[in-house]
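Minutes, methods subgroup
Present: GH (chair), OT, SY

1. OT presented the first of two proteins processed in the latest run. Sequence and structure tokens recorded below as shown on screen.
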Amino acid sequence: MSSENSSPDIADISSPTESVYVKMAAPPVFAFARLLEPQYLLVVFSAMGIIWLGAHGSLRRPPSAAPAKLKKGEKKREEEKFIEGLVASDVIRFPLMLAAVLVGLYYLIQWLQDPAILNKILRGYMSIMSIAGLGTLVGDGLDNLVSLIFPTMWADGIGRVHHIDPERRCQYMVNKETGEETIIPGKETPLPSRLSNLVQSAPKRRLLWALRHLLTEEWTVRLVIYGKRLLKVELHATDFFRFAISGAVAVAYHLTGSAALSNLLSMAMCYASFMMFSPTSFTIGTMVLASLFVYDVVMVFYTPYMITVAKNIDAPIKLVFKSAKGASMLGLGDIVVPGMLMALALRFDLYQHYQRKTTLEPVQLTITTENPSESSPETTTTTTTTTTQHRRVKAPYIDTRGQWGNRFWTTLLGRLSPVRGATDAIAATAFPKPYFYASLAGYAAGMFVTLTVMLVFNHGQPALLYLVPGVTGALWLTGLVKGELKDMWVYTEDGSLDTEDVVVEVDAEGRVVKEGKGETKGEGEKEKGGDAVEDDKERAKKRAEEKAKDRKEEGLVDSPGFHELFLFSVTAPRSAGVI
């Protein structure tokens, strides 16, 4: 982090390699007072805000939860995965790669002597690259907006949950004791709360239901050339707008160079980074942060590279906030690097939430053994032993997408959590987050220490020098206080914890004392017997039937005498209700 200041009462340190502890530029009391200036507050809250959004956007099914239950007619979706999960080798690879890029940019600036040329090239390149990141941010924002307008549930003033049913085009309540559904007369719109009373005419209600269906259900885009399907993508209506909006913003930034648009693109790239990269465990994440901690300190305090590049490059690689008194600047690495570990902490909170919802189901295990008879070795006796074990049953995962609107409409005024009847919204968004909140507190403390030291010595500071101890220290200290250091150590997102049908041994109090073996999802092929081969044939036959059915639904001709030379189609979802 660095600061550009025009105040005459603060001394200027010209050389980045000069010791910043030789002379104080401002007394600590004055530095604390200046922390309340707008540009510094904007840096802190912008960084924390984009980390909060990115961490929640990175949520996906934890290994302690079972796959989500499919609705009627819904196809099984392929679960999202991180493009790159950081491993132990990245502890060395990351700093070396970043150092090579930074040194290359520094000497390129020195060679050109005019950074304007480099800025034009980088601005054009970053404008194109930022379209995907901004598209992700805009798309998720539009999805949340749709969920606010068309939620699936809402609560009235006394805490009763109203469910919105798009199939029957009505609203109903569920009796907690009997589980019976009662349709609410007069509530025939997809709008929540008092908004449901605004639309009374039947044509307008039908229009709202149709609009809700088009915005919430998936569209299908297909491309077929010479009888072969090259593309089939399931999209939402918001996906058609996200890239149009992000492209327009990128073009506007390229033409105007607006600082506000640059900050927006920078935040979008940070947000997209949380969807793409993640350490596979707390141990690896801490090691990666430690190596980048050393890299940041060396590059800021002992070389001219970091500060020179940051001040001369005008591209969306940093957040810059200016005011009449000066400006403050924060590199994207100071957001993404600790933010990846903070996002992992939030997913660990979700993992623990579903782990607490796991139940133990008793199962009878029968073991048959054959032993030779003592009187006659040629004969055998059969012994059957029956034992009672327990099988771990995971709770089904509830996707966080589309639940933020439910949380808003089921949270009564003056409360922070939804009402008890809103079980989906609670499981998806209102689960306990002790590790994530601890990391947020550590990040905020690190940011304020960074700003204070920067103002005291009037020198750009390596923010990771303070952020890494703040975030990692807060996380491991939380694990120590909660007695969960072992859980943090063994938690991993490499897929090894995602097991099915695990049989465990429990003590008299129902606590697990011994883990059994379970089937790990995604394992490689194992040795197959005759039954397994027959099962493979059945699965292959079923896949062939499903493929033929898909081609028939898409209107593709299977006759050898005909080929679709070119077919491009966009199929809108058909409304389930009667219009």
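2. SY then presented the second protein from the same run.
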Amino acid sequence: MTAHSASPSTVTVGIGALRIEDVVAVARHGAQVAIDPEAIEAIAATRTRVEELASDPTPVYGISTGFGALARRHIPEDLRAQLQVSLVRSHAAGSGTEVEEEVIRALMLLRLSTLCTGRTGVRPVVAETYAAVLNAGITPVVYEYGSLGCSGDLAPLAHCALTLLGEGECRVRGGAIVPSEQALADAGIAPLVLREKEGLALINGTDGMLGMLCLAITDLKDAAKVADIATAMTVEGLKGTLTVFDADLQELRPHPGQADAAANIRAVAAGSQILDAAVEEFKSKQVQDAYSVRCAPQVAGGFRDTVAHAELVAGRELASAVDNPVVAKDGRVTSNGNFHGAPVAYVLDFLAVVAADLASISERRTDRFLDTARNRGLNAFLADDPGVDSGHMIAQYTQAGIVSELKRNAMPASADSIPSSAMQEDHVSMGWAAGRKLRRSVDGLQRVLAVEILTAARALDMREGETAPGTGAAIAALRQRVAGPATDRFLAPEIADSVALVQDGTYVAAVEAVVGTLR
């Protein structure tokens, strides 16, 4: 995933909404969290209302009743602490591979954010303990399967709640798995003792899927710039034309993402001696570039606009208090459906679709470099000695394999639903699953773009003439780690180096240092 250096060192969590960059700072860069004192006051105020209802003989869901299909049972006061602990233990039922640390830290921050809205009815100590665990670098062990994306990301959140109780397992700052009891003791954190409503408030939210959405939006916005850099390099490497990217042509179809993509391509490829020398040849022999080159702004623009829509949805969700039941502003404690993950699940799936398509067009551009019928005078497969050498033949196979997987990942998870809890929870969002597959799609897209840049750089090094300053900056960044064209070498490490330059932002930073900030 992409690294960002300008991240806040401390994120304040309060009644207002977090920003996407706050989530990334805590999840990915280890920023500390602080709770706004006003949030503590709000938490304490609504807790008073919960305690009033706890002493009332009238059953109130989540406070003095069972859960889900068992909501009709009234729980006596002496069993309510056990009710909350039993809820957490029973719902910590995940299975499969361990989920990445950054996802769990994002999930935890977002659960803390909902607690700090003062709408969940927990005591201040619950939020304070959550913040302390985050700041101590304690990350609960959470497993791949267990959330249906409705009634919250139940199993993932329950595993996190279990660690707050000093149960289950965790890692401390990426170290070995240790018992949560030991990690809390080493950090000087007292295990949480749950009271009415608190177990439910710790597990009932869309925090996992929203965390994955925030991380994906950050990475995909960067990938959009990388795609434009790769396109500019390919246009230049194939001796194509920049005229199709002219601003007035984009204005004829005024999608904002399209205009931004075309402007980036023009900026990165501007001043190319290779393209300048090929103008007359292009007019007489080529006339038009293929769709994968000519229509790049339309595809990358649609990608950008979809990411922008996802960012709008994420912003709304970051401003939400997702819990059930919730303490409303008038003091009533009432059931609701805000835990349903549909709005988040939909955009997670939308992003998987556009990630697959952006990768697909990148792979098609790469393939043009390898075919002598289409690469405009370059060696077959960009090999040093075709036949003896295979050049980048199998790098394109790697791209193709990834693109094929991304197309499978584009099948929407949110179109599925499996009833659960004895048909009480009879429609679910599958938003967690949408987030999990999107993470693989983001990674795959970054790898496909990295191969296109690696291949385009090799092609440009094989051309006569000076490259554009922008494309030259990308090549120079690559050449610090990967040598130029020669006889065949062990290719996997070179692909890995290019992937790293995509993921850590080096390509974008190198190009922007020369041409200015890309859109």
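Chair's summary of item 2: The CA atoms of residues 179 and 232 lie 51 Å apart.
Next meeting: continue with the remaining queue.
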